[in-house]
């Protein structure tokens, strides 16, 4: 196996596709992995070629597709031996009952079997079959053998099957497949064994049952940080505000609405955590009174006054001796000065200083990292939020290498 690495970007993934109707779903998975930056090499069984053509995967991956045990012996390449050695992970999706049986008994009379026996990379299997086949004692015994050898099994889902019956045997959706890959790729990452608490999105402060005061934060920054932390091997607790539409698989998601909700969720989560990344855009103020009924327009008045009170400073209220605290300063003026003051006043190890106007709601971020240990601030070039999140997690990993918390 190659030198230890983590994350989908740059990973070499061998995807084994076996002969079931769910083989067409492997094309969607392949496309997603390629777009995430993975180098995907597809191995197809003879049965798989009855359902989908190799050209589909070749077009998606820009790599040759392996269909025979004798493929890949050109030049310096030693076929299945070279492919097995290059893999960071091998996933079989879909895995039929026949393929699972062949894996359990070490059959190597096709390319997939040969790669699986030759690789030292982590192996994941995503079964897909008719539900009686899934529950058959032979299938379950074969799966037990694979689990004992360290193979990760991504359980099938319940629903309508190709036969028209309903039951559990459907190939897992893309999200748990990708989550499983991320988990095994990050198992030796720099944050393996650590728990990272990430907050994301804006909060909403109720005025009445209909109206609220909020902000423009989409939560994309927090989501990107949570994904990068998973890729680095961390367990992630994501505390998501109402502006976060969807959350990635593979993390402990805790939904909140208001700043007070988020404060309570953070205080509970940090008891389990090693790092807190406070990326949420928490409302600074909330209405002093939340009306039980919708406020009506008053006849003869063109104004409505809402008295506001200050929300708690959530990250300042967390014990910095018990957890590494990473803050964000989204400012519209005096950016570095305001951010440096927050590092001191809130007991942070590092703060991300960025221009609120340019960053909130955008897909890109230009930021400066400011450290509590006196190092010179580190300005970063403008980049997409996913790239920035990986930079930030790299910095957090370096902090944790010196002691976390």
Report on the structure:
The protein is an alpha/beta fold and 405 residues long. The protein folds into two domains: 174 residues, Flavin prenyltransferase-like (Rossmann fold); 207 residues, Rossmann fold, CATH 3.40.50. It has 13 helices and 21 strands. A hairpin with a 5-residue loop joins strand 6 and strand 7. Helix 1 runs parallel beside helix 2, helix 3 crosses helix 5 and helix 9 packs across helix 13. The longest helix is centred in the last third of the chain and has 17 residues. The chain is elongated, with a radius of gyration of 25 Å. The mean pLDDT is 91.
Write down the CATH topology of the largest domain: Rossmann fold
- Uncertain segments are none
Beta-strand percentage range: 15-25%
Number of strands: 21
Backbone shape: elongated
Count of helical stretches: 13
Sheet with most strands: strand arrangement: 12-11-8-13-16-17-19-20
CATH superfamily of the largest domain: CoaB-like
Helix percentage range: 25-40%
CATH uppermost class of the largest domain: Alpha Beta
- Architecture (CATH level 2) name of the largest domain: 3-Layer(aba) Sandwich
Average pLDDT level: 91
């Amino acid at each position: 196996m190659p030198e230890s690495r983590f994350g989908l970007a740059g990973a070499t993934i061998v995807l084994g596709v076996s002969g079931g109707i769910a083989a067409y779903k492997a094309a969607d998975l392949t496309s997603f992995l390629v777009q995430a930056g993975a180098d995907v090499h597809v191995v197809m069984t003879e049965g798989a070629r009855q359902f989908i053509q190799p050209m589909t995967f070749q077009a998606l991956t820009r790599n040759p597709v392996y269909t025979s045990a004798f493929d890949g012996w050109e030049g310096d390449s030693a076929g299945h031996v070279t492919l097995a050695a290059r893999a960071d992970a091998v996933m079989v999706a879909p895995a039929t009952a026949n393929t699972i049986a062949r894996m359990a008994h070490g059959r190597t009379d096709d390319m997939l079997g040969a790669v699986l026996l030759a690789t030292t990379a982590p192996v994941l299997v995503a079964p897909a079959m008719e539900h009686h086949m899934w529950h058959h004692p032979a299938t379950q015994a074969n799966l037990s053998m694979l689990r004992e050898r360290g193979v990760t099994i991504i359980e099938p889902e319940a629903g309508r099957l190709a036969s028209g019956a309903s039951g559990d045997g459907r190939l897992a959706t893309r999200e748990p497949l990708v989550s499983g890959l991320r988990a095994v790729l990050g198992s030796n990452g720099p944050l393996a064994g650590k728990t990272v608490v990430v907050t994301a999105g804006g909060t909403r402060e109720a005025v009445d049952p209909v109206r609220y005061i909020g902000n423009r934060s989409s939560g994309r920054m927090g989501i990107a940080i949570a994904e990068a932390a998973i890729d680095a091997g961390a367990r992630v607790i994501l505390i998501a505000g109402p502006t976060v539409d969807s959350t990635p698989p593979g993390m402990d998601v805790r939904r909140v609405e208001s700043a007070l909700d988020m404060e309570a969720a953070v205080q509970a989560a940090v008891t389990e955590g090693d790092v807190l990344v406070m990326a949420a855009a928490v409302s600074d103020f909330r209405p002093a009174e939340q009306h039980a009924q919708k406020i009506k327009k008053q006849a003869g008045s063109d104004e409505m006054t809402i008295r506001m009170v200050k929300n708690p400073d959530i990250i300042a209220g967390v014990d910095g001796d018990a957890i590494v605290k990473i803050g964000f300063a989204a400012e519209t003026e005096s950016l570095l000065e305001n951010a440096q003051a927050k590092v001191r006043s809130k007991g942070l190890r590092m703060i991300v200083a960025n221009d609120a106007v340019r960053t909130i709601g955008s897909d890109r971020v230009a930021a400066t990292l400011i450290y509590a240990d006196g190092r010179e601030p580190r300005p970063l070039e403008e980049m997409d939020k996913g790239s920035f999140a990986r930079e930030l997690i790299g910095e957090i990993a370096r902090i944790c290498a010196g002691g976390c918390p």
